[in-house]
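Record type: monomer structure entry
Structure origin: computed from sequence
Chain ID: A
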Amino acid sequence: MKAENLKLIVKEKYSEIATNSGSSCCGDSGCCSSPEYSMMNGNYAVLQGYNPDADLGLGCGLPTEFAQIRKGDTVVDLGSGAGNDCFVARALAGENGYVIGVDMTETMIEKARENNQKLGFENIEFRLGDIEELPVDDNSVDVVISNCVLNLVPDKSKAFGEIFRIMKSGAHLSVSDIVLRGELPVKIRLAAEMYAGCVSGAMQIDDYLKVMSDSQLANIKIQKEKLITIPDSLLLKYLSQKELDEYKKSEKGIYSITVYAEKP
């Protein structure tokens, strides 16, 4: 699929989610916000700054928990949605910090701005923009966060290049994403994509980390890794019991990871 077509599909789906306050992630299956798939997302309710109105259940981790945000930091959230991670980041950065949420979907930006207007924060801003062409100045950001979004970006090299551009020297990122370990059998991949559209954009973990290093990011390390378990009842619609048993014995699988990296 051409990049512009993929972006259009993602944009349309997220517009639908914003309008309906969450119904699926990036596929027609219910994905990240369906009840059985909520295990992908972390428990935001325990975090300071959490705003339930901004949580559409679309994440696959808790990047703010690992982002080492300090008071006074300038933070950028890529694919900020209704503002969930931005509000948590703002609580960490404090009154003297500044948080910028970037999203390419107009309806998400509108929803985030409405949420922020209710809270009255003056040090949060939501900007309409593309991750491959970020509306953020060079060398201006202390911390970059993102939650289950970069796997949907067609040109990940360009995206990480943009991240590198906006980071100050010594700045760092913490991003949560979906990746693969090992080549999944076609039937498994199909079942996974039916279960969670997010998986369709997932890269092999080694390739994902290489894109980061090729973008000149350094000190790359996985902060958290979690196996995404697809229900046997769904897999058995595509696999025999023998094939399912073989898959479970293998080291192949779909993972949620949170990754740290620095700009030297």
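Annotation 1: The first helix runs from residue 3 to 20.
Annotation 2: The domain at 3-262 is CATH 3.40.50.150 (Rossmann fold).
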